[in-house]
Structures are given as C-alpha cells and as structure tokens.
Design brief:
Blueprint lengths: L11 H5 L7 E5 L3 H7 L5 E4 L3 H4 L11 H14 L4 E5 L9 H15 L3 E5 L5 H9 L4 E6 L5 H4 L9 H17 L3 E5 L3 H10 L4 E4 L7 E4 L1 H4 L16 H17 L18
Parallel strand pairs: 1-2, 1-8, 2-3, 3-4, 4-5, 5-6, 6-7, 7-8
Helix pairs in contact: 2-4, 4-5, 5-6, 6-8, 8-9
The structure holds 3-methyl-2-oxobutanoic acid.
Length: 275
C-alpha cells in the first residue's frame, strides 16, 4: 500500500465528531513549509482565498482565481501530513448553479488532493452544497461576514446586528447544515448569535470574530503571527514577525554593505588533492 493510501490524516468524520467537545483548531496555510510547521498544531488547515490579500496583495478576495487556489492547495498538501485540508472555492467558481460548483470543486479535489472545499454560503448555496455532498465532496459552509460579498456590503462589516440580518445569518447556517455541510465557519457576528447557531446546527461551527461560543476557532495565520500593522479587532497576535523580519533584513543588509557577510564559514574553498 502506498504512503498516500496509508495516510494518517484526520478525516471528515473526526471533524464532525468534534461537535461540542474540545474546540477544533483551524489555521490558514498557503505554502508547503508553513503548512509543515502548522500541521502538528492544527486539526484543519484552510487554504483560504484570503491568500489573495495576505500573500498576493489584492484589496479583497474577489480577484482570486481557481488557478491560485489549486497552486496553493497543492503546496499545502505537500507540507501537511496529519491535518484535514480544506480549499476555498474562489468567487465566481460556484454561484451560477450546482453543476458549475461540482465541476470546479471536483477539479480542486483532483488537482490538489485536498479533503474538502469551503463555500461562502448565502442561503441560495444550499443547492450547491447538497449537490456536492451527494457526489462525494465534503463541504464546509461559511456564514455571517462573507468576504466575497465585500462589494455588496461596502466593506468588511460585522453581521447580525439588526433583527433582519440576524434572521438572515441564522437562515444561511440552517440551510448549509440541512444541505449536508460537515462544518460551518461563522465570521464576524456577536456572541449570542454564534451561540444560537452553534446550539441549533448539527455540525461543528468554527468562529472567526464570532466569540468562543463556537465549536472551534480559525485565524488567518499571517494575522496571528503579526505580519501586518493592522488587523481586525478579533485577531490576537501570538508573535511579532513583522518586527523580526525587518530586524533580520536590516542586519543582513548591514553585514553585506560592511562586507561582514559572507564570512569564512559561509564560503566554499578548494578541496585539497587526496593523498
Ligand atoms: O479565506 C479565509 O482565510 C477564510 C477564513 C478567514 C475563514 O475564509
């Protein structure tokens, strides 16, 4: 049996079984070495379309393409060995109808080897989710603040702050759950709404800016590592990599300019002839 066949990766069953238990740990990953570092600590690695913003410098996730998601998905699958890997379906790849969603989701699954896809699931997406699940593709839903809807919302705004909006987010979550999503990301909502959804749906919920009332948490890894000078209110920085990277680059530049780098330990020298 090949190594791939014998994988000890977490499965969709492990994730679904975590409902109400020890909170699930999810982080985003976009490249192989970072995925390898995060792998031991995360239950789920999400190849999020946030890659467009935090790696490619786009103003939103709207410009992210299938090709970008596939390339980053392949890299993460090479780096991670045990985490369950989910790849985001980019804007425009699933909204038209269930057939479009299946063709693109199947392409992502085949070309990356990932275990599931994520769909930003307005209530309309229930048809897409059911269609994919019936055909063998596990789907993670994503409700509340949906970054791909930034142009309708006029910015990245918390959701569920009016009664109407609250009902809409609950309806989105119910729709994703009854369509067969194995897990639902809840983004940018108040604690009581996250708690209500988590209590109602049968699958685990994973919060981002949605309080500890969810069955798990996700953060964008670059935010959590402190790579940016601005992050949303809900991010906790566990490191200050921006400062570390600047300090390292400045020290390297000084050494190069002062001819201190490379030193004698960092150069090749002629091999002495044998004998
Ligand atoms: O794209 C992404 O990183 C996401 C998470 C923020 C949930 O969707």
């Amino acid at each position: 049996m090949s190594k791939q066949t014998r994988t000890t990766r977490k499965t969709v069953k492990d994730i679904a079984a975590a409902k109400g238990g020890t909170p699930l740990v999810m982080l985003t990953a976009y490249d192989a070495p970072t995925a390898a570092l995060l792998d031991a600590h995360a239950d789920i690695l999400l190849v999020g379309d946030s890659v467009g913003m935090v790696v490619h410098g786009l103003p939103s996730t709207v410009g992210v393409t299938m090709e970008m998601m596939i390339l980053h998905g392949q890299a993460v699958m090479r780096g991670a060995e045990q985490a369950f890997v989910v790849v985001d379906m980019p804007f425009g790849s699933y909204e038209t109808n269930p057939d479009q969603a299946f063709l693109n989701a199947a392409r992502i699954m085949k070309e990356t080897g990932c275990q599931a896809v994520k769909i930003e699931s307005g209530a309309y997406a229930a048809g897409q989710i059911a269609h994919l699940v019936e055909r063998g593709i596990p789907v993670m839903g994503h409700v509340g603040l949906r970054p791909q809807a930034v142009n309708i919302d006029g910015g990245f705004r918390a959701k569920g702050r009016t009664e109407d909006e609250r009902e809409r987010v609950i309806a989105e979550a119910r729709a994703a759950d009854s369509a067969g999503a194995f897990c639902i990301v809840i983004e940018g909502v108040a604690e009581d709404l996250a708690a209500e959804i988590t209590a109602e749906v049968s699958c685990p919920t994973i919060g981002i800016g949605a309080s500890a009332a969810c069955d798990g948490q996700v953060l964008v890894t670059q935010d959590m590592l402190g790579l940016f000078d601005w992050t949303p209110k809900f991010v906790r920085r566990y490191a200050d990599l921006a400062t570390e990277i600047s300090k390292a680059a400045a020290a390297y530049a000084e050494d190069v300019r002062a001819r201190r780098f490379p030193g004698s330990a960092e150069i090749y020298s002629l091999r002495k002839p044998a004998g």
